[in-house]
Each structure stands twice: as structure tokens, then as C-alpha cells.
Amino acid sequence: MDTPAPLIAAIEAGGTKFVVAVGSGPEDIKAVTRIDTSDPAHTMRETIQFISASCRKYGPIQAIGVGSFGPIDLDPTSATYGFITTTPKPGWSHTPVIAPLHSRFQVPVGFDTDVNAAAIGEMLWGAGQNHDPLVYITVGTGVGGGVIVNQQPLHGLLHPEIGHLSVPAPRTPGVIVPDCHCPYHKSCLEGFVCGPAIAARWGIRGEDMPADHPALEEVAETLAYGLINVILTLSPKRIILGGGVMKQKGLIESVRSHTVRLLNGYVNSPAIVYAIDSYIVPPGLGDRSGICGALALGLNALAESKVARS
């Protein structure tokens, strides 16, 4: 008789919403819900309640995977490992994420950035398969980037913060608020192209930009400045662009065009010169990249715990 696949709880912890699921893999999601990201106590309580209810219905979970907005502490030797740290999200600075989950369920917990989780999901099951190094960038409430190198998420000193790459300040006339929206920097990618930045600059939601609105071209060119830095620094085999803002019709095509223009022939690779449409692509998993990646984090945490016990 086949052994049943282990049941994993997956949490995509975003600045706007937590997506929480229980399943054994991307094709076996037994339960899923969305929880608004309010204050930490309320949000974590609802998350734990949903997982507990799912356990009563489907059986006990064996691990949890969390892909979280950040910055987060990924150093297992640190006193604040498993914390959200210096986030601009009000009320969430220095919030423990792993501790309450482990305390309640007593199972291994895999933890990484939400964008690293999405990159892992895309690497395993989506548009990132067989493309290493791989970069996944989300453009939504914030801007974040996950990097895969040798099939592993890149951490390093902290973890990649692609959303805070310094870019030239756009000079498009007609904006309402010209300043960078980021509270930390004067001219960074997130501060000009995330959803709240677009709303502040233009008085229009990013997903509501018509194709002929000047905001769309500004966002595309600013994103392209970020992408050329990523290309020149990390030399990825593929870049995946996800998030709510990127669903805007015509935006990814404009980003590709500006990226080629700004590189100006310097990266003389067929992937750039002849196949940019296959180099900068949308997520293969659509909106499921993050939650699938969180499942993978949980599965990996379970495997590592078994190795440690053997």
C-alpha cells in the first residue's frame, strides 16, 4: 500500500493578505483561505485557527512552510530568527512568525521571503523550470525579488532586496506627488512602481492604468532600470515578473522593450537580442507561485528534520 503524501500547511504572508493552505503539493490543495493582514496578533490567530480546523478535517500536518514579506531574519543562529524585522508595514516591525506556529503545532517550520518562496514554486513547477539562475520579481503592494542559484534561494548577508535598488527618478510630467514613496530611500524601485506609489503619484490604482496612460510607460521604464541592474549583476537565465501591477495589459511588453533599449546591445545574448519575450515572462503558476513555494518550504523542512533525526 502506498504511503500517503505528508500534509503540509503553507502560508504566503503578504503585506496585504495572508494566503493559507493545507495540502500535499500543488495538485493537492485540500483547503485554502485569504486573511487580511491586519495587526500581527489578529492575523496570526486567524491563521492558526484555519490550520487547526483543517487538521481536524483532513488529519494532522507534518510541517509548515512560510513565505513572508520582509525584511525577515533568516539566520538560524540569530536571536530574532523567524522574525519580520524592519518592515515599513505599520505594527509589524520585530514580529515573530515561526515561534507561534511552532508552539501551537510542534512541527518543523520552513521560513523564507515571500518572493524566494514564489521563485522556488516557479523553479519546481512553473516558468522557472530548467532556468538557473532564476529571478522572480513581484510588483504589487511592494516590490520584492527572489533569486535562485544552484536550485537554492539566495540569502547571503540578509536576503535580496531588489525592490530597493536605486533607480533614476522618473521625470514624467503630470504627477500629483513627485517624491519617492519609500520611507527609507529617495529614489528606489519600490518607491516609484509599487501599487501605493502609483496611486500616490498618479491618483490611479496600478491595476486600473489604461494602456495609453503615461503612468504605464513610466512604470515600465523604471522597472526596466531595475531589471538591467539585475541582469548585469546576477546574469539570470530567466526573469519572472508577477504581482497585481504586472497584470496590467501591455505592461510586460513595454518592460521588455525598455529593457532591451537600456541595455543598448551590451549583453549580446540571444536570450536578450532575439528572445526577450521568453526571457522576461509572467509566472507559470499565476497567482499560485507563492503558496506553492510555501508548500515546498514545508516539504523541505520536513525532509531536513528527518535527516537530522536519522
Question: What does this protein look like?
Answer:
The radius of gyration is 19 Å and the shape is globular. Helix 3 packs across helix 10 and helix 6 packs across helix 7. The protein has 310 residues and is of the alpha/beta class. A 5-stranded mixed sheet has the order 3-2-1-4-7. Strands 10-9-8-11-12 form a 5-stranded mixed sheet. Strands 5-6 form a two-stranded antiparallel sheet. 37% of the residues lie in helices and 20% in strands. The chain has 2 domains: 130 residues, ATPase, nucleotide binding domain (Nucleotidyltransferase, domain 5, 2-Layer Sandwich); 156 residues, Nucleotidyltransferase, domain 5 (2-Layer Sandwich).
List its traits.
single chain, 310 residues, alpha/beta, Nucleotidyltransferase, domain 5, 2 domains, 5-stranded mixed β-sheet, 10 helices, globular
How are the SSEs ordered, and which strands pair?
Layout: E1 8-13, E2 17-25, E3 28-36, H1 40-58, E4 63-68, E5 83-84, E6 95-96, H2 98-105, E7 109-113, H3 114-125, E8 134-139, E9 143-149, E10 152-153, H4 189-193, H5 195-202, H6 214-234, E11 238-242, H7 251-263, H8 270-273, H9 276-279, E12 280-281, H10 289-309
Parallel strand pairs: 1-4, 4-7, 8-11, 11-12
Antiparallel strand pairs: 1-2, 2-3, 5-6, 8-9, 9-10
Helix pairs in contact: 3-10, 6-7
